[in-house]
Amino acid sequence: MNVGQQTTRRLAAKSGQSICRSCRDSISRNYASAAAAAVQSEDQAPQHIPPVAQAAPSTAYAVNAGVVLSRPPQITRDLHPFEAAFFLYQKRLNERLALPFTRYFYFKKRTPADLEWKRKMRQRLTPARDIGRYNGYNSEAWNDEVLVGAKESDVQWQVDRLLEDAATDGREAGESEDKGMKKVERELFDKPMPRRTEADEKNDTKSLNRALQRTLYLLVKNKEGQWQFPQDRLKDENLHGAASRIITQAGGPNMNTWLVGHVPIGHHQIEYTKTTKLPSGLTEYGAKTFFLKARIMAGQVNLKENKLGHKDFKWLAKDELQKVVEEPYWKSVKNMLAER
């Protein structure tokens, strides 16, 4: 029995008269609703919370945007001597496991091409042209390994053998030509470019045509004579917009670049030796530079119309960069840079 029903019974007992069931239920519901409303109003009574005054900041840091502009590697890296020896072993192993070369499917008997093929086979003993003198089908076929540092495992030696095979017909020095035979017409071919360029030989750090196996980063010399990545203070813009502006103002319009993302890849913080009082009343204690990643696709830096006061520039790899920047700056940026 709930509270409303108990109250109804007490009222009926005091009056000494009976009450109908409908009236009794109505009185019970009204009383229960009033009691619930009273409890709810007590729970929702507004509580007075005194306002807390927030103190305005009295210190500030300058926010700069920096750009880590890089040129990715253009060629694969040089092989380790062990890797070169291993790949040569794999090529010789393939000669042992592959089916014999069907010569007459490609060369007609007693033709100049067939005679040339026979001469070259007597010299190298294998159809492969870049694995040295090796026969994969005789009793010495098991001896297909070479020592680390052997000339046969050198990539340049293999390239030279391929070029030699394409340029010569296999005749030894002083060997006469076959009488009555038509010469084999050879196709012109381009010799591969060297892996070290002229800029590498001259150590031209302003050229992008150097250190083709490494990632190069653009460094500029600021007004104070310090080498750093291009950077500037934010001017009513976000980091991505500032980075795009800095690339154009620092390197000129003759560069095709791509900003990789909108999120910084690192930051560098410095503390001023002498604080600066801003017009807003804040005291500036230092500067924080947030770096965004960018790639150069084509073009070159031009400092003639530079608007940021840069005096010089260099394209440097990670290990070269460490030698020209200051130690605190290097500790902040080293983890943003690729090893190669």
From TrEMBL:
- Name the principal localization, coarsely classed: mitochondrion
State its location(s). Mitochondrion
Tell me the ranges covered by the Large ribosomal subunit protein mL46 N-terminal domain, including all copies.
61-200
Would I find Nucleotide-binding among this entry's keywords?
no
Segments passing through the bilayer:
none
Superkingdom of source: Eukaryota
Give one GO term, molecular function aspect: structural constituent of ribosome
Which Pfam families has this protein been placed in?
A: MRP-L46 (PF11788)
Q: Which Gene3D superfamilies match?
A: Nucleoside Triphosphate Pyrophosphohydrolase
Keywords (A to Z) from UniProt = Mitochondrion, Ribonucleoprotein, Ribosomal protein, Transit peptide
Write out the GO cellular component annotations: mitochondrial inner membrane; ribonucleoprotein complex; ribosome
UniProt family annotation: Belongs to the mitochondrion-specific ribosomal protein mL46 family.
Designated name of the protein: Large ribosomal subunit protein mL46
Source organism lineage?
Answer: Eukaryota, Fungi, Dikarya, Ascomycota, Pezizomycotina
